Amino acid sequence: MSIESLLISPESPPKRERRKEARPGELLDAALALFVDKGFAATRVEEVAARAGVSKGTLFLYFQSKEDLFKAVIRENIASLFPTWNEEFNSFQGSSADMLRYAMQTWWERMGNTSASGIAKLVMSEAQNFPDIAAYYQSEVIRPGNALIRQILARGVDRGEFRPLDLDQAVYTVVAPMIFLMMWKHSMGACAASAEIVDPERFIHMQVDVLLHGMTASTHTPTTP
Amino acid sequence: MSIESLLISPESPPKRERRKEARPGELLDAALALFVDKGFAATRVEEVAARAGVSKGTLFLYFQSKEDLFKAVIRENIASLFPTWNEEFNSFQGSSADMLRYAMQTWWERMGNTSASGIAKLVMSEAQNFPDIAAYYQSEVIRPGNALIRQILARGVDRGEFRPLDLDQAVYTVVAPMIFLMMWKHSMGACAASAEIVDPERFIHMQVDVLLHGMTASTHTPTTP
Amino acid sequence: MSIESLLISPESPPKRERRKEARPGELLDAALALFVDKGFAATRVEEVAARAGVSKGTLFLYFQSKEDLFKAVIRENIASLFPTWNEEFNSFQGSSADMLRYAMQTWWERMGNTSASGIAKLVMSEAQNFPDIAAYYQSEVIRPGNALIRQILARGVDRGEFRPLDLDQAVYTVVAPMIFLMMWKHSMGACAASAEIVDPERFIHMQVDVLLHGMTASTHTPTTP
Amino acid sequence: MSIESLLISPESPPKRERRKEARPGELLDAALALFVDKGFAATRVEEVAARAGVSKGTLFLYFQSKEDLFKAVIRENIASLFPTWNEEFNSFQGSSADMLRYAMQTWWERMGNTSASGIAKLVMSEAQNFPDIAAYYQSEVIRPGNALIRQILARGVDRGEFRPLDLDQAVYTVVAPMIFLMMWKHSMGACAASAEIVDPERFIHMQVDVLLHGMTASTHTPTTP
DNA sequence: TATGAATGAGTCTTCATTCAT
DNA sequence: TATGAATGAAGACTCATTCAT
Description:
Four copies of one chain form a homotetramer.
Chain A: H1 3-7, H2 22-38, H3 45-51, H4 56-62, H5 66-78, H6 82-90, H7 96-112, H8 116-126, H9 131-158, H10 167-186, H11 200-215
Helix pairs in contact in A: 2-3, 2-5, 2-8, 3-4, 5-8, 5-9, 7-9, 7-10, 7-11, 8-10, 9-10, 10-11
Chain A binds a DNA duplex (21 and 21 nucleotides) through α4.
């Protein structure tokens, strides 16, 4: 869909184009979009192929089966998330509060707002039917993700910026709202009818606000029986 | 079926009457379990029928189609949650902190820990394919649920127990972790491989703790740019 | 295709007839005919179903897969051959020459002239692709068949009717022409063009004649270097 | 196509000339091996091409279709057998018994033991699906082959070495065991499980022995009703 | 000529749905 | 009502064949 292609050529779309390198990526993109949109089962391989601009048979040139395609979609879109992220946080300068706020905003920008959030939805929806994908996601996304958050919280506690916390659980305090937000975007949030649209910016702002209030060192705990 | 049921019962239900009324319910139960477990598409109607102890044909006597069954499952299991809940909270005596804590614990006991949490998973997973179900869920569950939480928070703010809050957003501060917890239970949490099991009790305890800390009136807000 | 069905009823062929017991047999018959005629690969399951008067789906109600159907066809048509045969020969009265002649004629009547000969063709044609079928055929047909022939020859030798023979090999002296005859019938013999049609009666007559001549005790062996 | 090939090369074999002429032969060899091994339908053209060391597309440069390739395989491997054979037997010196023995041994050496036996298997297995191939085989192999055998038998009868025979049928007395042997080698004989392996040498030895015994002139015929 | 990416008609197989009993 | 045999539309996948390079 380059500009030229819109201007020139009423001729014809070149058929039987040979683009071996590009194909898998195009198919993966098409599959991601459709799987996220309609779910794995409700997406026909022919649709994926069509969206990628190729025929059904071509898809099977690159992926052994529909399941194989599914797994490739997940893997492809998960792989490169954490390496860069980890670095960033290792060299972070500033308060732990800022760090946490930055983490959550960044999370949204780089995952929630991209197709990666579709992956999260997909994996959670289909985890039961694809245990190996679930395990893979667990080790490649959840574990490192949690570790990252935990690091931030530990830093805050160490520096006396946050009060002492049960880190194992505190991690979910950050993770849960973010995952909720991503899921929501791809389920209820995508239904036009929904009046209660969740605005990510405001949502995150509030979550951060409450979290930081709640974690900040203070003398008294609210009444607990 | 039992001998007694054949002997006693004066104005007795007719003998071979094999609980006609119960059938739809049994089918709905079976369908709920299987849909939650395997997803809508991966569940065969024959499995549902088998689990309910009837034949495939019988299922179609009560439900026009598989989709119809799906919608009935959702509707059936959503319906009656809030009436009783609302009452309970209208007459609640005690601090708003306790009220919030109670709300979240109750939520888990009555939804998270029951098949109702399966519904949430189901609806979120299939929302795209069943927009009317999503809309229905929105109006029957999400809206009243949010209203309930909002009420609690408003009470806390009014009474000066909580600091002033943007209630529209604050609601999600409570809702997000609970929905996350239910989703998790039915996706990643159900995969044996998962080492990072989330313990609901501890999870909720921590969430409440941080929330109350974070919402409780205090003089200084943590650094916000 | 009974006579009545041709006379009466211009009404309509009853659709959706329920004949659970009859179905597998009808399908097996249809499959046998088509497999023998066109080979396994060239036969479409839909053809089999159509020939059996049912729909494609019905076939899969009774057989898990096309391969499964193939194996069932073989098994079904092989099973009951030898039990009755063995008895017959155990109680045979008469010369061993007559016995051998009877064996070969009977072989043709009961196998060669029936669909069972199609099985032989089928098994030999597809043995490579279905090793387990080949093994099954080996143990259920070839081994008992050879044993039967061997018994007859041994009897002849014992009684001094035949000259001493290397029985292991002599068996093939009887078996080879019969198997050739069955194969021929279903391959070259079925092609109209073929001028050299093999007439089973005369073929067997000659084979028996030469065999008996050749096996009959005599003093001199023809020149062997 | 190289520049050199246009410039140099007086009568020299051009350098990069990759044996154009050899290609079809290599493909035919590969096809023969695979067709014999797996059957026509179960062999993919890509496998044939790979085995011949060329690409799939190249195969279609030389053969219009898979069927065309099949027919070429048969034709190619049948053609030149009989010319040399006929000569040999026209000038044979020695007893007709020796001649027959020699014929059968030679048959095995030059057909049974070579890929030509695979052709027989192939043709018999697929005769139904390729009637023209069957007809061709009939006229190019079976008719001349039978004629050859018939000639030998006639010679024996003429010379008084064999007893008078119905030659039309007697021919099969020789042909049947040989064809059986070839078929067996490529079907049951190729299945490892098979304990009853037929040893060609001993098999032929016995067949010849019985045939010669059976055909040799003698006064009495065994009891025939 | 040779390649191998691309095609799409053809098949097997599944499963929601129907309907005769 | 209840059954479950039968149906057939739909979908995954294969592979002979084509064609741009």
